Amino acid sequence: MNxxxxxxxxxxxxxxxxxxxxxxxLPFTKSNCxxxxxxxxxxxxxxxxxxxxxxxxxxxxxxxxxxRKEHKFFNLTDNGIIFVSLKKETAFKTQSELNEFFxxxxxxxxxxxxxxxxNSDYKIATECIIEIELVEPxxxxxxxxxxINVWTLTKEKRINGCVRQNVN
Length: 168
What we know:
By secondary structure, this protein is an alpha/beta fold. The chain has one domain. Strand 1 and strand 2 form a beta hairpin.
């Protein structure tokens, strides 16, 4: 009897060690585009950086999947994250401001490009908002309440994905 209990305990222990956290996302999310985060808490896209390198003070890339407990940006890392620090100010809207504008509870979750923002500290760069859609709960998305999905990707990138470029 003790042997069976030990086997069950070890089995549960090892399955938990090697289990992967899943991403919380809407069912239609299929892009391969990385998430841009400016100055540690503003979600954006490459247009916020502009075409001039002089605005960039620091840039780093995260390709690996981090630990959900240690990184507040975990759910945005499915396709990598590009962290950028800029010399210019970036205009933004908070999640609660967007929810309030659309008549939803201020603390309701918001999705960006189909991925849930799991931390309320994140803001969204206004110049990077391409489209905002109100997502109604249904059996496919399993949402409990209406949610906002902010697109920072063009329709072309949503369908065809982002072109990966080699940096020299």
